[in-house]
Prior knowledge:
Chain A: Keywords: Nucleotide-binding. The complex is a heterodimer of chains A (80) and B (141). Chain A has 80 residues and is of the alpha+beta class.
Amino acid sequence: MNLKVLCFGITRDIIGQFEYRLSLPTEATVADLKNQLSMQFPKFATLKSLRIALNEEYAEDTMTLKENDEIVLIPPVSGG
Amino acid sequence: MPSMIDIQLLHTPLSEQACLDFVKTDDTGGIVVFVGTVRNQTKGKAVVRLDFEAYEPMAISEMRKIAVQAVEQFSLKKISVHHRVGTLAIGEVPVVIAVSSAHRKAAFDACELVIDTLKETVPIWKKEIFEDGEVWVSATP
C-alpha cells in the first residue's frame, strides 16, 4: 500500500521534504514504518525518540497502518 | 467543561492579559500565570532567535487534553493556555498558561504540571538559531 508521511522538525531536515511517500505491505504496523525509515535514513538513529501520530493521536508500535491514515513523524517535542 | 478551558495556537504575539482575564471568576481565590520567554543564550552560546512550528490540529488537541486533566485533578475554576508559532526574537513570549482555583496551592501545582506536560507531549518544535548555525532543541542527545 502507498502511504504519505508528514515530517515535522528535525525529521523534515533528515528526509529532505515535508511530505514523504513510501510503500509498505498491507497490514504493516507503526513499528514496520519506523524500521523502514531507519533503514532508508540512518540519521533517525541519532534521535532521542521518534513517535508516530495516526490521525492526530499518538500511535502504539503494534497499530496497523491504513492507506488513508494521516501519518505524522513526531521527533522529540520542544514547545514552551 | 469547554467554557472553563481556553486553548489557542497563534501566529501573532500573545497577550498575558487575555489569559489572565479569561480565568478570573468570582469564586477564584488565586490565579497563577506562567509566562515562557525566549532566552538570549543556551549553554553560554548566544541565541539570535527561535523558530517554532507545530502540527497544529494535534497540538491544540494535546493542549486541550492537558487542560482537561488539570481541571479535573486540581478542581480548577478556569484555565487558559496560549502557545505561539513562527519566528520569535529574544524576550518574546512563546507560551502563557493561566489557571484559577479557590486556593493558591492547587493553582501553583496545576500550572507547573501543565507546562511540564506540554513540554513532553504537545507536538511543537523549536529551532535555536545561532550566529553560526541552528539546532532543533532536544532532538538529539
